[in-house]
Every structure is written in structure tokens, then in C-alpha cells.
Amino acid sequence: EVQLQASGGGLVQPGGSLRLSCEASGLIFDEFAIGWFRQAPGKEREGVSCITNTNGNTYSADSVQGRFTISSDNAKKTVYLQMNNLKPEDTAVYYCAATYSRLLSFSIATMCSEGGWDYWGEGTQVTVSS
Description:
Blueprint: E1 3-7, E2 10-12, E3 18-25, E4 32-39, E5 46-52, E6 58-60, E7 68-73, E8 78-83, E9 92-100, H1 108-114, E10 119-120, E11 124-128
Parallel strand pairs: 2-11
Antiparallel strand pairs: 1-3, 3-8, 4-5, 4-9, 5-6, 7-8, 9-10, 9-11
């Protein structure tokens, strides 16, 4: 059974930092991509940052470019999202998701933007407020 455990959310002031972790189990880690998504109240879910563990390719949404960094520790089967210079508009529930990525047609940018991921974890709340 594939399980994804997200953690690291909390309350932070504007300009502050948080690091989210997504620990995966029940899958062959380097055959999957892991993505971070978020959903704010009244808004649709959006892809934030995603990484293909097969080859290390990453994608981040324009709204977080230069502020958020996604990374992966294959030994720990954990993907991290380092979030710096947080803004109030980053407030949302953040989810991590996994999908099989060892396909010739696989595009991390397309998957992160358009969705269709196979497995989802519970969310972790991130609140940016003074």
C-alpha cells in the first residue's frame, strides 16, 4: 500500500521560512515522481513544485520560482519543499502526491501543472500571517 506522510506546516510571519517533508512508503521510490500541491480556501488546487526521482528533473510554478526549492533524499524516501520568503498568498493546505514516472512520455512540468496523480497524502496547513 502506497502511503505519503506530509509534515512541517505551521504558522509563520511574512518573509519567513518553512520546510515541508513528504515521506513515502510502499513504492519503489526512484520509479516515481513526487509533487507538492496546495489548495487555499475557495480556490482550486494548484501544483507548486514537483520532482522526478528517476532523473532528478524538477518543475516549480511561476508563483514560487526563486522562493521554493524541491529536493529528494532517495535513501530516506523523502521529498522536501524548502519555502523561503513566504507571502500571505502562500497560505493553503499543502499536499504531496506520487505518480509513476518511468514512462518515455512522462513530463514533470505537464504532470505538475495538469494533475492526474495516482496517490495522495493528507495535507499540512501552512499559514503566513503577521
